[in-house]
Design brief:
The protein is built from 18 helices and 13 strands. The protein has 389 residues and is α/β, with parallel strands linked by helices. The chain folds into two domains: 184 residues, Glycogen Phosphorylase B (Rossmann fold, 3-Layer(aba) Sandwich), CATH 3.40.50.2000; 190 residues, Glycogen Phosphorylase B (Rossmann fold), CATH 3.40.50.2000. The strands form two sheets. Strands 3-2-1-4-5-6-7 form a seven-stranded parallel sheet, sandwiched between helices. A six-stranded parallel sheet has the order 10-9-8-11-12-13, sandwiched between helices. The radius of gyration is 21 Å and the shape is globular.
């Protein structure tokens, strides 16, 4: 049986890799031979998928921000569709990545209606004040929708979509993280040192809009905390040169690490982070975090003033429970002053950290139970022709 999986960006590659591993486990347990071909990234390839194209480096969010990636995305779509015409899959799985995946899903639905399509980790139109018809498009291409947020499940079920809640897949990843003590030992962090993780980017645009304000805040924080050291894990190695240049320019006591993100997150006393999947990883590790995000000012203006788009929260930690747990500063609020103030509170006020950790535990209860990826894999394999799952 051939399964085609389509996803994009760094987070999609991570989620896709966890799913590929689970599909392989479950298919072996069911004595089913499965070939997985994919649009994804290196993590998915390492998990056993045959890559048709690498989409982890062409992610973007916004109007102007997406323009440089339109042609590369279309080229990969054409390559994938050409392959699928000659090698028709038995099943298609779409993971997040709304625009490209809706295009691929619509093509499959029009030309190969007999092929079942499962949407796993739906785009977050459910959290938006305006979805511009995206809900109906997601429903039209999906035979089954596997959801990871409780509110997402309720939203799509109320719209008549065949939505099944499986829980959040990062729960399964939590077990692979080292303890804080082990992580600090591996990174050679001294006991009295304050380790602050800075996670600025998984997309190209985020280096431009987030790195300066994060590093401005870091420069001031290190004048107030002599024992602080900043740790910056790379989401993509192509960012290393730019980040190291900026570290020198701002005069930061900072270390860039590659292939050690789990150690950095687990070792951190506090994190200054972009909005994204990493927020949930930090929450599962009980690490206090300050979440910031900025877009091109024109993109933000169009979204808010013309399209009237708004979200109750940006961070998936807050979206999980639909209330603010972690502080998030978006656009004009994403200032060095706000970052500095919040980081200093987390470092110096024990009660602030304790309250956050209590809220983290409540949030984790909304994520489901461990075994999410295997549950998702079983639901997907049920859709195969003549499936015994």
């Amino acid at each position: 049986m051939r399964i085609f999986i389509s996803t994009g960006e760094v987070s999609g590659d991570l989620q896709g890799s966890l799913l590929v591993a689970a599909l392989r486990r479950q298919s072996r347990a069911g004595d089913l031979a499965v070939e997985i071909v994919a649009l994804g990234g290196e993590k998915m390839a390492a998990a056993g998928a045959i890559l048709l194209g690498n989409t982890s480096e062409i992610g973007s969010f916004g109007l102007l921000e997406s323009l440089p990636f339109v042609l590369p995305t279309l080229r990969l779509q054409r390559r994938a569709i050409a392959y699928l015409k000659e090698n028709l899959p038995d099943l298609v799985v779409l993971i997040d990545y709304m625009g490209p995946n809706l295009a691929i899903g619509s093509y499959i639905r029009r030309h190969f209606p007999q092929v079942p399509i499962v949407y796993y980790i739906a785009p977050q139109v459910w959290a938006s004040s305006v979805n511009l018809g995206k809900t109906s498009r997601i429903a039209s291409v999906s035979d089954k929708l596997l959801t990871i947020f409780p509110e997402e499940t309720r939203y799509f079920q109320n719209k008549g979509v065949n939505a099944i809640w499986v829980g959040h897949p990062l729960l399964d990843r939590k077990e692979t993280f080292p303890t804080k003590e082990a992580a600090r030992a591996q990174l050679k962090i001294e006991d009295e040192a304050i380790a602050i993780a800075i996670i600025p980017a998984s997309r190209h645009q985020e280096l431009k809009y987030l790195l300066p304000v994060m590093f401005q805040a870091a420069r001031e924080i290190q004048t107030r905390l002599p024992k602080v050291h900043f740790w910056i894990p790379l989401s993509l190695k192509i960012y290393q040169k730019k980040i190291e240049q900026e570290i020198q320019r701002y005069g930061l006591r900072a270390t860039v690490v590659s292939d050690q993100q789990q150690q950095v997150l687990a070792a951190a006393d506090v994190a200054i982070t972009k909005c994204g999947t990493v927020n949930l990883e930090l929450a599962l590790l009980n690490v206090p975090q300050v979440v910031v995000y900025r877009l091109n000012s024109f993109t933000y203006w169009v979204a808010r003033k013309i399209l009237k788009i708004s979200f109750p929260f940006a961070s998936p930690v807050n979206l999980m429970v639909m209330k603010q747990i972690v502080p998030e500063f978006i656009q004009q609020q994403a200032t060095a002053e706000n970052i500095i103030r919040t980081v200093m509170e987390f470092v110096l006020v024990p009660e602030r950290r304790l309250k956050l950790q209590v809220d983290y535990q409540k949030m984790q209860q909304c994520m489901g139970d461990v075994g999410v990826c295997d549950r998702a894999a079983k639901e997907i394999l049920k859709m195969l022709p003549n499936s015994k799952f």
